[in-house]
Amino acid sequence: METETMSQIITKDQLLKHWQGHRSLSRRTLEKFPEKELFELSIGGMRTYAELVKEMLAIAAPSAKGLETGKWEALEEDKKDLKTKEDLLKAWDEATEQINQSWPNIPFEVFQQKVVAFGQYESSGYELVAYAIENEVHHRGQGYVYLRSLGIEPPFFWERE
User: Fold this and answer.
1) Which residues are noted in the entry as a divalent metal cation-binding (predicted)?
2) Residue 22 annotated in ligand binding
């Protein structure tokens, strides 16, 4: 069996750009929602898009901060202070900036080390970032279903800039 070793497939900066591209698309999805439906619409027992956004906020910047510092707080998804679309958008922008501030300080080796994020999720650092991205893509897809049910065209999924 032939083995091939590669030192790197994607750079740390490329990974951040990929993640922030998804975050930009998720923000544009949030912008499309009418205020009332953002907090009230549920289909098939799914949580409202506001609740899904709060979960994404609870994971994203705290993951970057935890990878940076090695200190993890409990996962806090409730975020009762985020009561309007404007509140959510502001929190989204603040989280984006927090990720950008933490990212350069994350030691490269942390991406290969095991971490226990939020006291419950054990993975390597890169798996945690992948989880944050996958979770966001999943919930954004739910948002697309909600938008389409309202007759609103969601943003094109491939436009991540």
Assistant:
1) 139
2) no
Q: Which of 124, 106, 108 is nearest to 116 (CA)?
A: 124
pTM of the prediction? Answer: 0.90
Alpha-carbon span 158 to 135, nearest angstrom: 17
CATH of 12-149, one of 3.40.190.10, 1.10.10.10, 3.40.47.10, 1.20.120.450: 1.20.120.450
Which of 31-39's residues contact partners 24+ apart within 8 Å by CB, and which partners? 31/89, 32/147, 32/152, 32/154, 32/155, 33/85, 33/143, 33/146, 33/147, 33/152, 34/150, 34/152, 35/84, 35/85, 37/146, 37/150, 38/85, 38/88
Domain boundaries, the chain: 12-149
Per-residue model confidence as pLDDT tens digits over 42-78: 999 999 999 999 999 999 999 999 999 999 988 877 7
